[in-house]
Specification:
Nuclear Transport Factor 2, Chain: A, five-stranded mixed beta sheet
Length: about 180
């Protein structure tokens, strides 16, 4: 039996491969029934997604691309909390000769106790690129929603961890291979 760290690493790899696949079923394969997806900064006013609404959201974004890759640049793991923080670049080719799309994000991923499922993703996105996508590429209802409000308090510990991990050390690293 693999240790929990190896199990978590495999789950994260499957998640990242799911993003890069442009296949909603592949992306959803590692999500738990308890899954929540939140996008920061809160100023974007994007709604919190469960598995079903995240599937719809992902389908809308995937429909914009001919090709897409989510490439991890740095990864930090908090074994005690089952959280992985990944700074990644996103590289894609937009459909209809839309050309290249480049941006970056930070994914704060909370895994299930077993490490086999993703319970939560808090995604801090490139605000300028998100607004550009909303304005020029997306359907009218894309990323429209009320403020996240009280949900930010729940995310606070993960954000604190991300800041400490990035600012204090690049030591507890395990870059995904």
């Amino acid at each position: 039996m693999a240790d929990i760290s190896e199990t978590r690493a495999q789950t994260i790899k499957l998640l990242l491969d799911g993003y890069s696949s442009l296949s909603v079923p592949t992306l959803l394969a590692v999500l738990s029934p308890r899954f929540k997806h939140r996008v920061l900064p809160a100023s974007l006013e994007m709604p919190v997604h469960d598995v079903k609404t995240f599937a719809d959201h992902a389908a809308g974004i995937f429909a914009l691309f001919d090709a897409f890759r989510l490439v991890p640049e740095h990864a930090y793991e908090d074994d005690a909390q089952g959280v992985m923080v990944i700074h990644a670049r996103m590289e894609g080719t937009l459909k209809n000769k839309g050309g290249p799309w480049r941006n970056e994000c930070v994914l704060m991923i909370r895994l299930s106790e077993s490490g086999e499922e993703v319970d939560e993703i808090v995604e801090f996105v490139d605000s300028a690129k998100a607004v550009e996508m909303r304005r020029t590429l997306a359907p009218k209802n894309f990323m429209i929603g009320g403020p996240v409000g009280g949900e930010l308090a729940r995310v606070g510990n993960v954000l604190l961890f991300a800041g400490l991990a990035a600012g204090a050390f690049f030591g507890v690293r395990r870059l995904l291979q």
